[in-house]
Amino acid sequence: MSHTLTSAYIGLGANLGDPQARLMWAMDQLAALPQCQPVARSGLYVSAPFEAVGPDFINAVLHLQTTLSAHELLLNLQHIELLAGRERPYRNAPRTLDLDLLLFGDQHIHTATLQVPHPRLWERAFVLLPLAEIAPQWVTADQLSAVAGQPVMRLEPR
């Protein structure tokens, strides 16, 4: 186990049940993880499913500081998804909760179970917009321009 603090950015999404409440619950779960300290939360964003069907998604990004390794953090994310009733019947299926490790410091990780930066991070407005809100240093104007055609709307806090 490392004792070095690393900045981790987690993408959150849900489109089943009450996705807005589920994301707030998930952020609380993430903030309560041992060896994790929340730094910033984006607003909530609504978007149509990307390369999928089903209800609109609610998405957000959470910035944590953690002493966990990337793989330890991934196991915690998967556990929180299971607590939320996450099932994976097929690729891009509607979901009660999706937690993606987007960035882990400046590390590049390519294993059978984890790829960081997230391989589709730069292709998705529903990730880039909330990430740019809390970590503009990670998102360029060109990257935002490349996804400008994807409809995403920031929700007012409820």
Topology at a glance:
Elements: E1 6-14, H1 19-31, E2 36-41, E3 45-47, E4 57-66, H2 70-83, E5 98-104, E6 109-110, E7 115-116, H3 125-134, H4 141-146, E8 152-154
Antiparallel strand pairs: 1-4, 1-5, 2-4, 3-4, 3-8, 6-7
Question: Which descriptors apply to this entry?
Answer:
single chain; 158 residues; Alpha-Beta Plaits; 6-stranded antiparallel beta sheet; two-stranded antiparallel ribbon; 4 helices; 27% strand
Short account of what is shown:
The protein is an alpha+beta fold and 158 residues long. The chain contains four helices and eight strands; from the N terminus they run βαβββαβββααβ.
- Spans of at least 5 consecutive residues with low confidence: none
- Total E-strand runs: 8
Q: What is the CATH H-level superfamily? A: 7,8-Dihydro-6-hydroxymethylpterin-pyrophosphokinase HPPK
Distance N to C terminus: 39 Å
Q: Approximately what portion of the residues adopt beta-strand conformation?
A: 25-35%
User: What's the helix count?
Assistant: 4
Rg from alpha-carbon coordinates: 15 Å
Q: What order do the helices and strands follow?
A: EHEEEHEEEHHE
